[in-house]
Amino acid sequence: MVAPHIRSIGTAGGSLRVYSYGTGPGAVLAGGSLTRTAVYERFARSLSATVPVHVYDRRGRGGSPPQPEDYSMETELEDLDTVLHATGSSVVLGHSFGGGIALEAALRLPVSRVAVYDAAVNIDGCLPTSTLPALVAASARGDHVGAVTVFSREIDPVMARVPLPDSAARALVWATSHLTRDGHAWKEMVPALAQEIALLDSSRAAADRYAGIAVPLLLLAGARSPAYFRTIASGLAASLPGSTSMVVPRANHSALHRPSEAMLGAFRRFLRQAA
């Protein structure tokens, strides 16, 4: 298995770590909140036979700097634009919060096409952000286990179906944070998570805000993801009749971490049209 080419790309606020699967212009992937860039390796490697895929550590994780105090969507777009220029790419892929960045890029950056999975855009306030104060408070006091527990109760379908007492939920998150690679990374990513959820909470646009997207757009949502991701995809598709929309069978919100052939096939077909 060939290792990705790793490099740092300079910005005004520090250097962004970029992992390139293949060389030359291709697609840039913006990842989700509370997600290590490394979990996209299998997905990026599989797609790199179609086009090169460049995955970058967004601010607040891995080898990239923390988010600035004046963090906003402009921060994300400036970073994405920097990676696009440095790699010569014009295609943007996005997952979850990164899907929201990708959709903004389709409106505001010179990109050629965009594909998203479970895009986290707060269409008419459909995303669950009611526990934001508790999440921000836990992050401020350095309680990353508490912050992830609060976050998981809102976005994890398993925890929603089988509600646990607070002590049991916290114990589960504590064990995961100590025993898994993903969990080990939570401590560094929780401050960024709090800022990203705050940004989503403040952004409650209607779906037709994205009607100005003029590039080819692929909207994917998981059949087993929280229902609001399918609501977002269908709302966007209704505002963008030229887009392609699909619910991926048996796929949950983390499906890009271990992508099925159905998932990969949808992305490959879309990316081949860019070649």
UniProtKB/TrEMBL annotation:
<dbReference type="InterPro" id="IPR050228">
    <property type="entry name" value="Carboxylesterase_BioH"/>
</dbReference>
<keyword id="KW-0378">Hydrolase</keyword>
<dbReference type="Pfam" id="PF12697">
    <property type="entry name" value="Abhydrolase_6"/>
</dbReference>
<dbReference type="GO" id="GO:0016787">
    <property type="term" value="F:hydrolase activity"/>
</dbReference>
<dbReference type="InterPro" id="IPR000073">
    <property type="entry name" value="AB_hydrolase_1"/>
</dbReference>
<feature type="domain" description="AB hydrolase-1">
    <location>
        <begin position="40"/>
        <end position="263"/>
    </location>
</feature>
<protein>
    <submittedName>
        <fullName>Alpha/beta hydrolase</fullName>
    </submittedName>
</protein>
<dbReference type="InterPro" id="IPR029058">
    <property type="entry name" value="AB_hydrolase_fold"/>
</dbReference>
